[in-house]
Amino acid sequence: MAIITCDTPIGYELPAISQKLNVNLNRVMTASGEVDTIHTDSTAAAREGLTRPIAVGSRLFGVIPRMMMLCFEEGWIVGGKGSVVTRRSAGIDDLITAKGYVTGKIPEGDTKLRVECEVWVETDKGEKVIVGQCSGLVDRV
Amino acid sequence: MVEPSKVRMSDDATGQRTTYEEIEVGKDLGSFEWTVTQDDVERTCDLDQHWHEWFVGESPWGGPIAPPQIQSRPPRWLLGRTYNVRGVSYKLDFEYLKPIMSGETLVISGHISEKYIKRNREYVRWDTMAHNADGELVFIASRVQCMDIVERDAPREGTGIDGGPKPERI
Predict the structure, then answer these.
(1) CA B170 from chain center: how many Å?
(2) Looking at the domain assignment, is residue A26 inside a domain?
(3) Quick one: average pLDDT of B133-154?
(4) Which of A137, B70, B74, B75 has its CA 20 to 30 A from that of B143?
(5) How many CB pairs under 8 A join A and B?
(6) According to the model, what pLDDT value does residue A16 have?
(7) The predicted structure's pLDDT at residue B170
(8) What is the pLDDT of residue B157?
(9) Chain A residue closest to B100 (CA)?
(10) Is residue A125 part of a domain?
C-alpha cells in the first residue's frame, strides 16, 4: 500500500531510508578478475585527483528510489520521474540516508495526480551529497 | 595516503582518454540489446538493499519486475562504447515509463546532447532511451558526467588505472 495519496499534505515528510555503504558494493569483476577503480583502490582514486576512494554514484542514488517506491509503489514504477545533482562525493563506508518532503501536486491526465517532492541524500556527517526533485503518480479521487 | 594527482590522465588501462574537444554534440552513440536477467534484478536488490515481493514473484504487471533504478547502469555502458570518459557522475534526469520485466530484452540507444565548461571543469551530457520488443519506450535518462576532477587547465599527461568503459553487467 502506497504511503502517499492525493490527500497527503504539502510539506509531508517522506520516510527516511538509510544504507551503510561498504567497499564490496563497489567491486567490478571481469573474467580475468577484479578491476581496480576509483571506488575501491586508493592509487586509482589518487590518479584522478581524489584523496580517497569514493562511493559509486548509483549506490548513493539508490536510497532515493527505495524511499520513493515506499511512498508511491505502482506510481513510482510507472510514472516515476526525477532530476538529481551530485554535490559532493561520499566515502565508501559512509552511512547514507535519503530524505524528502512533498512540495506540490499537479493533475496529470484525467485520473492521476503527480506529487512532487524535494529529495536529498545525506551522510552521517550531515553533508548533503545528492539533492534534487522526484515525483510519482497517485490516483486522483 | 597516496598524494592526489595534480595532472589529468591522458590514458588508462582501457585506452586513450577522450578529450573535451573530441566530444561531438549530437553524436549518435549507437545501440545495443540488454537482456535483464533475474540475476540482474536480484543483484540490484542486494546492492541497494531494496527488496519487494514484486522483484521476485508476481507483480501487478504479471511476473517479476526490476527495481527501476536498475536503469542507471546501461547509460554508462552506452557512453563507454564510444568515449573513454572516467570523471565522476554529476547530474541525472530520468523518467520511468513502463516496468522493466525480468527476462525482457531492451534496446538501449542514445546520443550526446550537450557539453559545457563550468568552474574550470568539463562536462558532457548524453541522453539514453530504452525500448522494449514492441518498440515502446520503457525509460529515458539524461546524464551529465564531469570529465575530470582535476581542473581543465592542468596538463593531460598521466596514466590512470580506472577507465570509462566498464564491463556491461550489473
Answers:
(1) 11
(2) no
(3) 97
(4) A137
(5) 130
(6) 98
(7) 80
(8) 92
(9) A77
(10) yes
Assess whether pLDDT exceeds 90 at residue B167: no
Give me the mean pLDDT over the B63-90 stretch: 96
CATH number of the domain that A75 lies in? 3.10.129.10
Q: For an interface test with A, which of B12, B41, B43, B89 has the most A Cβ atoms less than 10 Å from its Cβ?
A: B89
- Across the range A113-121, mean pLDDT stands at 98
Question: A90 lies in which domain range?
Answer: 17-21+55-139
- Chain A: nearest CA to B25, how far in angstroms? 21
ipTM for this model: 0.94
Q: Which residues of A touch B48 (CB under 8 A)?
A: 19, 59, 62-63, 65-66
CA distance B164 to B153: 21
* Count of domains for chain A: 1
Residue A102 near residue A15, CB atoms below 8 Å = no
Nearest to A49 among B92, B98, B150 (CB): B150
| CATH number of the B27-35+68-153 domain | 3.10.129.10
> How far is the C-alpha of B75 from the C-alpha of B141, rounded, in Å?
7
Least-confidence region, from A28-37, A94-103, B12-21, B84-93: A28-37
Give the pLDDT score at A127: 96
CA of A60: which chain B residue's CA is closest?
Answer: B48
Query: Domain coordinates of chain B in residue numbers?
Result: 27-35+68-153
Q: Is residue A81 part of a domain?
A: yes
Q: Is A54 in Cβ contact with B88 (below 8 Å)?
A: yes
Cβ of B60 within 8 Å of Cβ of A83? The answer is: no
DSSP 8-state symbol, A137:
E
Instruction: Return the C-alpha torsion angle B11, A84, B78, B110, nearest 10.
Output: -130
